[in-house]
Design goal:
Largest sheet: 8 strands, parallel, barrel
Radius of gyration: 25 Å
Structural class: alpha/beta
Strand order of the largest sheet: 13-14-16-17-18-19-22-23
């Protein structure tokens, strides 16, 4: 029996809910129950559709006698999903116990929401709440991440009104549950990136004067598809950044104003170019290492996007990176309108998937535009075949790019970052024609040096240079050569 006071409160809530078009699911009510079929995998994978070959293991389990075990590959995130009918405009709660690195839990269809963990030593519960839309079709999914180890899941629960899917078939890895909707695709589609072409050239525009040719933003040639404004400035608030047009640059340009810069952003965007704000650089002191600094960073970048019209953000931090909290911040920025997300790690940062930058790239792979690793200022490094290669060679470019390609990044997320002139870097400069050779080697298997990848990557994304200003000082030798090479790729 419901006490009178509680009954009155429930009546009031019902009126409010009806006015909002939302149904509340009350804990303890008959309708709040797990509506997933085979939620603990006690019947193997019956009721679940998996993109890889999953198994039901007896250890480790969270409860009962079995749990899901699935292993991602370099091209498959080992997703297991279940589609079912739900009530429209209704609040639900989803949870699961998971173990492993980069395990994701989420929903699509009538609602879109997800959560994840970068890694656990034992079982950890993931949970999220969401409200369905007008559609009654919902898909619940679990997956790991490309190139990462096996993950485990158990005791998946979707609490709310509805009916579990019919699952009368024996355990199998290929038979989908009875459903009227199509399960999610087996690979993560490329994120929305502001209508960029298949192959792109990225360049850094210097918001300072150091002897390289001073340029207004609108002076940047259209051969540059992405212009990274260098750099945002750290503030006194942990993680937060700001941007101010440099007075030294302004003086070189005869009084370049903030208003002119904002107008130039619109001008180059109208030409099809994208402008992003770069954070970091050699002297960057920005640290995003906890939830507070992640929120500060995201909010400050979103404020710059709103003020200046930037299309996204570039991460060029060279003093370490926290994959968990920077990933959190970048997702917030992406959801807030910053659709072009790029990175420019040093070579050492991408030697292993265990590195912070590599983990960040894999962790946000679904929203990541491109990683333009700096193939310079590094000396000799290991290639994907275990051999050591010296900077300044085609082999250095192809053998190190291979690490990223084999480590889980899509080819359309890998770019080659080179200095535009000998003055632009302390070491590692090579002729722009070498960049074109490396791109052709990766895309077609032609023009290689001594190293030739075991497969080709026709969708290799492109190249980057530091900087547009140093390139201008060289008569745009880099942009002219490399953009022509990009145009000739598959």
């Amino acid at each position: 029996m419901v006490p009178k006071v509680r009954f009155a409160l429930l009546s009031l809530l019902s009126v409010v809910a009806l006015s909002l078009g939302v149904t509340f699911v009350l804990a303890g009510s008959a309708s709040a129950a797990n509506i997933l079929a085979n939620p603990g995998f006690e019947a193997g994978t019956t009721g679940w559709t998996c993109t890889a070959v999953p198994t039901a293991v007896s250890t480790p389990v969270h409860s009962g006698s079995r749990a899901l075990s699935a292993t991602p590959t370099s091209s498959d995130n080992a997703q297991c999903s279940q589609s079912l009918a739900v009530s429209p405009n209704t609040a639900y709660k989803l949870s699961a116990w998971v173990q492993g690195s980069y395990v994701y839990l989420g929903v699509s269809g009538s609602a879109t929401a997800s959560t994840w963990t970068p890694g656990t030593s034992g079982y950890q519960q993931l949970s999220l709440s969401f409200t369905t839309g007008s559609s009654t079709s919902l898909t619940v999914y679990l997956h790991g991440w490309y190139g990462q180890p096996t993950y485990y899941a158990d005791d998946v629960s979707l609490d709310g009104p509805g009916t579990p899917p019919t699952t009368t078939t024996p355990p199998t890895t290929t038979t989908p549950p009875t459903t009227t909707t199509t399960p999610p695709t087996t690979t993560t589609p490329p994120p929305t990136q502001g209508d960029l072409p298949k192959h792109v050239l990225t360049g850094y525009w210097q918001n300072f004067y150091n002897g390289a040719k001073a340029l207004k933003l609108a002076d940047v040639p259209t051969k540059y598809n992405i212009i990274a404004v260098s750099f945002a400035d750290a503030t006194g608030t942990p993680g937060a950044v700001d941007f101010t047009l440099d007075s030294g640059l302004s003086s070189q340009l005869g009084g370049y104003t903030d208003a002119q810069f904002k107008a130039d952003v619109k001008t180059v965007q109208a030409r099809g170019q994208r402008v992003i704000i770069s954070v970091g650089g050699q002297n960057g002191t920005i640290s995003v290492s906890d939830s507070t600094s992640a929120t500060n960073f995201a909010n400050s970048v979103k404020a710059l996007i709103s003020e200046y019209g930037f299309d996204g953000v570039d991460i060029d931090l060279e003093n370490g990176i926290n994959a968990t909290y920077m990933g959190q911040a970048l997702r917030s920025i992406y959801n807030g309108g910053g659709k072009v997300i790029t990175m420019a790690p040093q070579t050492i940062d991408m030697q292993s998937t265990q590195g912070g930058y590599f983990q960040l790239a894999l962790g946000i792979k679904d929203i990541l535009t491109i990683v333009n690793m700096q193939y310079y200022n590094s000396g000799s490094m290991n290639g994907c075949n275990g051999n050591v290669y010296s900077q300044g060679t085609v082999d250095f470019l192809t053998a190190l790019a291979c690490i990223q390609l084999q480590g889980g990044l899509r080819a359309d997320q890998v770019g080659l970052g080179l200095p535009a002139s000998p003055q632009a870097a302390g070491g590692g400069y090579q002729a722009p024609a070498n960049t074109v050779s490396a791109l052709n080697c990766l895309a077609r298997g032609t023009s290689c040096g001594s190293f030739k990848p075991s497969t080709t990557y026709p969708s290799i994304r492109g190249a980057m240079t530091w900087s547009i200003n140093w390139d201008a000082s060289q008569g745009y030798a880099f942009a002219n050569t490399v953009s022509a090479g990009l145009a000739g790729l598959p």
